[in-house]
Every structure is written in C-alpha cells, then in structure tokens.
Predict the structure.
Amino acid sequence: MVSEGSPQRAGLSDLALELAEKSAAFQSSLPESIAAALPDLVRSMNCYYSNLIEGHNTHPIDIERALEDDYSADPEKRDLQLEAKAHITVQKWIDDGGLEVSPTAPASIIEMHCRFCELLPENLLWVAYLQTGARAQVVPAELRERYVEVGQHIAVSPGAAPRFLDRIHAAAA
C-alpha cells in the first residue's frame, strides 16, 4: 500500500506486476498434482512463521499432526496445535472465497477474528499482561478494550483500533 504521491509508486507497481506475471507463469508450468498440493503447504508454512512471530513455536510436524486430529498429550503443546489448526482452517476458508467483501474491510477482519477465536481452546482466549499479572479475555468478533504488547511490539491503542482498521481498508481500496 504505497501512497499515490510516493516517488517509488511507479517502480513498485511495475515490480508487483512483474512478480504477478512470473508467478502465473510458474504456476501454469507446474504439474497439476504439485499445483494442487501447494496451497495446503503454503498455509502450513505461513501458520508456522506467523505463530513463531507471536512466540508460539509449533513445529511443522506438530502442525501436520493437528491437521490429522493427532494431538499431543501435553496440554500446552495440544493448545498450540489447536491454534495452528484454527489458523489454517480460517485461511482455507478465506482462500476458498469465504469472505463476502474485501479482506481489508473492518467487517471482514472482525469475521476472521471471530472464526479464529471460536476454534481456539479456552486457555488461548486469555491474554496475560506481564507487567501487572492481570489477565483479560479475548472475545471473538470484538475489538479489544485494553493495550496490547506482543514481544517488543506495542499495538495501536484500543481507541485508535477502529480508525486504524478503516485506514487500512481505505489504503487498500
């Protein structure tokens, strides 16, 4: 999402077009069996790295086991497997055309959040605040009312979240 006035916009747009063309050429060159398997593989890979960024280290083999409903006896590991499965389930729903409006629309983001949270184990619907020890429940489809830190990242304030979502959507339009 590069602003219209940016001097880099034309060059980046050209690169994006070139990437799309090369991607389409690559995809059409693949045997059907490989092309059919790639979306599942990419969803699992995205899940692994996305969760790792959040500090949730679920090994790829444990993600694959979760997709086969083969869960660990360790409750913490099992919860992470369920989180990974929820992530992949929602991503597949999006990939299969589940969204009725743009994925950047606030309503779409809220629906994705709801679908994801509804698949999580109860234990993962609580956020702990390290400095105070307080805990807050994550409510599916509701924007948060408290400040959030993920690692060293401090998210936008709760009051700014609706405006932030609107801005993302406007920039993507």
